[in-house]
Target: peptide chain release factor N(5)-glutamine methyltransferase
Amino acid sequence: MTSDAPSILAELTSLLSEGGIESASAEAATILSQALGTSRASLAFADVPAERAKQARSWALRRADTLEPLQYILGTAVSGRLDMAVGPGVFIPRPETELLVDWALRSMPATHDGGDAGLVVIDLCSGSGTIALEVAHAMPRAQVYAVEADPKALDWLRRNAASRAEAGDTPVTVCDADATDASLLRELDGRASAVLSNPPYVPSGADLPAEVAEHEPGIALFAGPEGTDVIERLVPVAARLLADGGIFACEHDDSNGAAVTEILGRHGGFGRVNQHRDLAGRPRFVTAVRVRESTENTR
Model:
């Protein structure tokens, strides 16, 4: 027995709306397309087998009853050009990070042959691996490292890295390490073309939506009273790893663009420090270029 997709969509939207989900219609379409294994664009003309409708209802009820993030329920999150496997214990990729990745891909220093061969890219606080794996997908000859210390996030990072390698992308080197460790990846000192990061950056007293505060890992969210504790410790690590002319990009809370700019300025080893806004016009990430001569001349 089958039902038409529009009627199932209406039912799912009602279930989600009753549970207080603001984007009920969009989430209903995502749930049903996932249940059918098809695109959202195909739903208008789709037939829904009874067992697929049952699965979709189950996901919608779970979302409405618990406010668990839909990405955890479905087991996947869209990350730019890729899909990341996600679940409890790992931060869910956000569209804002895609802007950082796009900037990095446009700004990566060229190698002697004008391609990505020889580029070394390091993703600090990698989480699910979205930054590292996006770069590896777009730059197949680059050497990409993903650094993560939290055991639960590491499980998802390794799973995603293995999946992308099976799909044909150049394997990413996964490092079980603290991204703020002063001795991290010493063998790469002064060699990195880019150091990129979406670290914990939420101020500890911030008021977050329930589905974030009650479900996503606090270790991936909070970074001290101002939200800059981790970034303060990341900057000297990035400076040590970067080659002269290498790029640094770091996502931050929308209240901290000026603070992160000040941190980089205080270090003294970076030039061309710029703030960037997200799609809503809020300050979202800061970029800079490593200038080793500046550091050497001030010592």
Q: What stands out?
A: The chain has two domains: 2-66, 79-297. Confidence is low (pLDDT under 50) at residues 294-299. Residues 146 and 174 are 5 Å apart (CA to CA).
